[in-house]
């Protein structure tokens, strides 16, 4: 069980980094992710699922149903350094399986019936990691409209080419409203000074255009930027917590700096 937990943490951070470029660039949203809200969105989701199932059955596709063996959601509260306004994201980790092979999987739906929130992503947009012959996927960055929309039960629905489904639910609590939980940092003379109530942090560096450069986990409150990257020019830095508080993670950034040659 302990080894499984370590694997989950490693996969979680891999998926956070994989979608970091999109986090760092607001003008470059995930291209393959569809998000709808309201009753119309839920109805559309169900129609799409039924349509896919019907079409695949008419085509004569058969086989064992898919399996959704694990689903975990990581709600993330974001904040820009000079703003007191919070943003909200969901990141995910799921273990999927299909007897007919990974390529037989089609779509993943995440639905919050109470809040009328709905997302769908196709297999080509998933971030896949194979670990011990198991398929783990991340769905990327799911933006939440407001803090009040987060609590509740989320249904993950996995479909395959035959129209068969697997479902698993996760319940998220209300987010903490303590602003002191948000980590902060100061950067001067090539040294990063962390101001935070948390024990461990991840500092992530991107170019001005949002390209991922490097990440570094630390328990220190002061460390040189050179320990993380030697990249020069205009950089963006984010600081994020590693251990959840009431199930939530916290990220602050971007901190924009000009690193000279």
Question: Would you spell out the secondary-structure blueprint of this structure?
Answer:
Blueprint: H1 2-18, H2 20-24, E1 33-37, H3 38-58, E2 67-79, E3 86-97, E4 105-112, E5 117-122, E6 127-131, E7 134-138, E8 142-144, E9 152-160, E10 165-172, E11 184-188, E12 191-195, E13 201-207, E14 212-218, E15 222-224, E16 233-241, E17 249-259
Parallel strand pairs: 2-17
Antiparallel strand pairs: 1-5, 2-3, 3-7, 3-8, 4-5, 4-9, 6-7, 9-10, 11-12, 12-15, 13-14, 13-16, 16-17
| CATH structural architecture of the largest domain | Sandwich
Order of helices and strands: HHEHEEEEEEEEEEEEEEEE
Poorly predicted tracts of residues: 1-7, 18-36
How would you name the oligomeric state of the polypeptide chains in this document? single chain
Q: What best-fitting shape do the alpha-carbon axes yield?
A: globular
- The average pLDDT value, as a whole number, equals 82
The CA-CA distance between the termini, in Å, is: 47 Å
Number of domains: 2
Written overview of the protein:
By secondary structure, the chain is of the alpha+beta class. The protein folds into two domains: 171 residues, Immunoglobulin-like; 81 residues, Immunoglobulin-like (Sandwich), CATH 2.60.40. The strands form three sheets. Strands 2, 3, 6, 7, 8, 13, 14, 16 and 17 form a nine-stranded mixed beta sheet that branches. The chain has a five-stranded antiparallel beta sheet with strand order 1-5-4-9-10, covered by helices on one side. A hairpin with a 4-residue loop joins β9 and β10. The longest helix has 21 residues. The chain is globular, with a radius of gyration of 20 Å. It starts with a helix and ends with a strand. The N terminus is likely disordered.
């Amino acid at each position: 069980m302990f080894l499984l937990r370590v694997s989950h943490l490693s996969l979680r951070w891999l998926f956070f980094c994989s979608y970091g470029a999109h986090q760092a660039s607001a003008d470059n949203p995930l291209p393959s992710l569809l998000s709808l809200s309201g009753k119309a969105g839920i109805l559309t989701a169900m129609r799409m699922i039924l349509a896919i199932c019907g079409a695949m059955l008419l085509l004569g596709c058969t086989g064992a149903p898919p399996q959704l063996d694990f689903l975990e959601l990581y709600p993330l509260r974001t904040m820009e350094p000079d703003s007191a306004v919070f943003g909200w994201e969901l990141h995910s980790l799921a273990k999927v399986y299909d007897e007919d092979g990974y390529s037989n999987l089609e779509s993943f739906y995440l639905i919050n019936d109470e809040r009328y929130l709905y997302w769908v992503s196709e297999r080509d947009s998933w971030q896949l990691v194979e670990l011990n012959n198991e398929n783990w996927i991340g769905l990327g960055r799911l933006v939440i409209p407001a803090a009040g929309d987060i609590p509740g039960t989320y249904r993950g629905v996995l479909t395959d080419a035959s129209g068969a489904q697997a479902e698993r639910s996760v319940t998220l609590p209300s987010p903490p409203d303590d602003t002191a939980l948000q980590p902060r940092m100061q950067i001067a003379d090539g040294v990063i000074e962390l101001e935070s109530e948390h024990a461990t942090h991840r500092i992530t560096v991107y170019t001005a255009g949002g390209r991922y450069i490097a990440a570094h986990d630390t328990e220190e409150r002061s460390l040189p930027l050179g320990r993380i990257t030697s990249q020069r020019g205009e950089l963006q830095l984010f600081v994020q917590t590693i251990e959840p508080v009431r199930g939530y993670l916290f990220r602050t950034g971007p901190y924009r700096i000009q690193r000279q040659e």
